[in-house]
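Re: weekly structure request thread

Next one in the queue (550 aa):
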Amino acid sequence: MANRPSSLLNSPGRTSRRRKPHRWLVISAICLVLMVLFYAEENRRGRRAWEQCKRSLKSQGIALYWTNYIPAEVPEDENIFGVPEMATWFNGRTGIGWSDFTHALASPTYAGFNINSNTARVRVAEIRIALPGTTTADSSTVFLWDDPASRVKAARMINDALGPTARAPQSLIGIGLMLHKPDDVEPAQLVLRCQSAPTEKELKEFFPDSIVHANAGLADRVLRFESNGDGSYSVTVPRLATATDYLAWSDGLEPQFAVIQRALQRPCSRLDGFYANPKTVPQLDFRFLRNLAQTLGARAQSHLLLGQPEEALSDLTLIHAFCRRIPGQQKPATLLSAMINQAVRGLYAAQIGEGFRLQAWREPQLMALRALESVPSAGMVKRTFLTGLCPSGWGYRHVAARLNLDFGRLSSLDAANQIILADKVAAAAKEARSQDRGLYTFSASLEQTAFERACQNTAHSQTEINQALVACALERFRLAHGDYPENLDALVPQFLDTIPHDVIGGRPLHYHRAPEGAFVLYSVGWNGRDDGGVRGQPLPAADGDWVWPD
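Done, posted below.
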């Protein structure tokens, strides 16, 4: 090595290899400095955006500190949930509310409402097809296939054979209760005079499920046609629960209902729990609230079928009371509690509507029934798993943007006047989706709440409540004057102080009298367009009007 020429020791290749590690060190140092500067700048921008957001919201009187929303402690003897049973039943963190509430019953649900394809069926009609030249028996009523009036009369005969029925909130097909025992049903004898034999599909179109007040769009038919092989058909429906049987089952819950009634007399409502962290705030048991409201609603329908409107009013009054005092007054208010509140109140309004269909309400109950109000609230902050890898400023900027959006989109709700602007709700939902596709969603995001769907449900439930209030006044007018009024203005001031407007847009509800002593009352629905009282598809579809009763 000592005798090797100096030109070999200082060759360009060896010098290049010595310089490469130094270059990588310099490049790494530059990248590190740039990254530090990048994080510092992004954090500075984020904090500046957050401070601007706080100043803007503070100027609007909006409190951003969680401690401002924590409910104060209340004495146990003044607290609804100071009653041990109430704390067990209504607290969603235990998850045992309904099972504990129904522990004295053989089953936590009423088996008679478990209607499916295997449910025993009841014959409600015998239909014979009469072609030209065919004679008919004297005991059968003849209907003309092409006569629209015949469809109405034939449907009425099937309903008369089945007897008075009511929709049950727990029933998957809608209809669930009947007055008579299934074995006492005498099938109607119908003759359809046709030019040619109709197919089974045509018979189903002639007799839709709606004639027995079943839900629309079911996978399985409620009215079934079974060919007898001689040109005649047997028409059957699922075996329904009787009103007396359901009341006998649910009477086992009377002691629990009494506990709720006594507890609701206390002035305060505060679930026990840890409120310092938004993630650990105690929540109501939605399953329990739903089952309780459905049970009381089915009891109300059973009493109405039996001609006991005062007892039905008692059941609805308990729904009204616990809804107003518990989900309606829950603190801190959340979107979930608001949606629970509206769902229960919508069920309350639906039971009032069933009472009108059955023509069971009388003046004392109509005066006692009252509608309710509610407004949704905002959601909470939730960070994603990538938070630790991104500049904290990204989180500040995203949360600031989303808070501005969330409080800004409340402008689509006019709580004071009970108006929802559907077009603004849709625009706000679109803006929220676009923000969630932005760069800053990698670091933090607001937990996605279906704001648009929540507003739809709120608008629909409040519309049902407003329509129920108007319907009560219309029925009182009919009882006093023998017919419905020409317009809603005739209800003021004797039957209504003011007429509720349409929740969608704030315009008047649409009303007109209909043939055969009926009326049509409807809202323009989510699309904001008057479709002439044509009923739309169930939510979230936006087409069609919201017609009373739903």
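Residues 12-59 form the longest helix (48 residues). DSSP finds 15 helices and 15 strands in the chain.
Next request, please.
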